[in-house]
Amino acid sequence: MLCSAAGEKSALLWSMRSYTLIRRLEGHQSSVVSCDFSPDSALLVTASYDACVIMWDPYTGEQLRTLRSEVHTSSLRSVCFSPEGLYLATVADDRLLRIWALELRSPVAFAPMTNGLCCMYFPHGGFIATGTRDGHVQFWTAPRVLSSLKHLCRKALRTFLTTYQVLALPIPRKLKEFLTYRTF
């Protein structure tokens, strides 16, 4: 799958096999400007000028959660997953880079920045690069985490199993909820 954010109130999911539209993800109140898949491709996040990050199941189109900080009232510019898939970074017009812990559903770190436009984690973790509208790049130290065995197992399974395949497994409901990111 490929996701596109074209400045509409929705993001579009495309099949890279047939090059056709799979579904339109609707839920934002303003233009969607950024999107990113989790490292295992089991989650998709979208960021919008409505100051919300929505986490989606790309296989079902279901909204799993919405992240919004009480102080995060400015338009979002960018969102990206950390390499282990447990954190998100966002850049907003309020001049802050935020790092969100998905388990907590809230920011765990902040950094001041001016004219923020985009952000991206270093592939091996530990650092975030942010780009600004005036052409500068800044580098930030990001939290490093040792993933739990539980999360590593989920990440390994979701790398090759879709949500529908997980739901068809003969396993307990609570385990299915965990493997499909309904619970952390």
How is this structure best described in words?
This protein has 184 residues and is mainly β. 12% of the residues lie in helices and 42% in strands. It contains three helices and 14 strands. It has helices at 149-158, 163-167, 173-179; strands spanning 2-5, 10-14, 21-26, 32-37, 44-48, 53-56, 63-67, 76-81, 87-92, 96-101, 106-112, 116-121, 127-132, 137-141. The strands form four sheets. It has a four-stranded antiparallel sheet, with no helix packed on it. A hairpin with a 6-residue loop joins strand 6 (53-56) and strand 7. The protein is globular. The two termini are 24 Å apart. The mean pLDDT is 92. This is WD repeat and SOCS box containing 2. Residues 148-184 form the SOCS box domain. InterPro entries: SOCS_box, SOCS_box-like_dom_sf, WD40/YVTN_repeat-like_dom_sf, WD40_repeat_dom_sf, WD40_rpt, WSB_SOCS-box_domain. Pathway: Protein modification; protein ubiquitination. Pfam families: SOCS_box (PF07525), WD40 (PF00400).
N-C termini distance? 24 Å
Q: Over the alpha carbons, how many angstroms does the gyration radius reach?
A: 16 Å
The tally of strands reads 14
| Poorly predicted sequence stretches spanning 5 or more consecutive residues | none
Order of strands, widest sheet: 4-5-6-7
Which sequence of SSEs, written as H and E, runs from N to C? EEEEEEEEEEEEEEHHH
pLDDT averaged residue by residue: 92
> Could you tell me the strand content as a percent range?
35-45%
Question: Number of helical runs?
Answer: 3
Q: What is the overall silhouette?
A: globular
